[in-house]
Predict the structure.
Amino acid sequence: MSNLKTFWERFVTENPAYAGRDVPVADYFCDNKKDADECADLVVEGIKRATTSSVWAIEKFDEKMPAVGDLSIVTDWEGEPKAVIEVTKVEVVKFKDVTAEYAFIEGEGDKSLQYWRDVHWEFYKREMQPHGEHPTEDMQVVCEYFTRIGQ
C-alpha cells in the first residue's frame, strides 16, 4: 500500500485538481501476469483506452458498476502502480454487439474485433466455469472507456 500512497501523493502534487480525494481503487487487468503486465504497459503508452467486464461478474461478486468520473490506479500483476485512469463513458451491451471500433480502443493484441472476441470469450469462460456457468453471445458486458490522466 505504501507504493500506492506514494504514487497517489505524487499524482496529486502534479494534478492538484484531485487533491482531497481518497486514494482510488488499485487493480490490474486480466487474470494472469503476462496479460496484466501487457495491459498496464498499453495503458501507460496510451494505447489501451477501454476495458470490459461482464455484468455477470459485477453482480456475482457484488462489485460497483463503473461510472463516468470514477478514478482507479492501474497496476501490474505484482501491484506496482503504473497509471491513473478516469472513466469517461460506460455502455452496457450484449457480447455479440461489441463493435470493431470498441475493440480497437481497448487496444489489445492486433486490436481487431476477432481478437477481442476470442480473448474475452476465453476470459469469461475461466471466470464463470468455477460457478457452473458459461458465457453466451447475449450476455451483457460493460464497455468502460477511460483516459489516462497520470502515471
